[in-house]
Design a protein that fits this description.
Blueprint lengths: L2 H14 L9 E5 L3 E2 L4 E8 L5 E3 L4 E7 L2 E7 L11 E3 L4 E7 L7 E7 L12 H4 L4 E3 L1
Length: 138
Amino acid sequence: MRPSASLALLMLVASCSSSVEPSALLVTSTQRLQYNAGDSVVVRFANLGDETIDYNACFATLQRRAGAVWQDLGPATGDVPCLGNTFHLQAGAVDSVIFGLTSNQPAATYRYALSSFRRNDGSPLSLSDRTTNPFLVR
């Protein structure tokens, strides 16, 4: 998929969910809005700003909605190498990682929170920038 098409898709997915308020800096979204237990979840992030964003997707947490709050369920697992490497997402760039849901994942609403996304000055991005749209597991 061309980068401009990927970016347009990310913006469309993010705009479909009232729980995600994309800032001018980063859109973080899942490829789909519904999954089955055991599925792989592609999480894409698009840098909409004009500066490079540093990140390590190894530091991601799966969260489950419990009423009005989100509960941390522990580290997300998937194809993310946890080597302590910092990656750089250039302005206008799109990247993705794949996380796995367990085969016995309870039916619920989930999201991923990525904690290590930072600006050039080292300050963290807002939680809304670092959190995917909610998605349903059935």
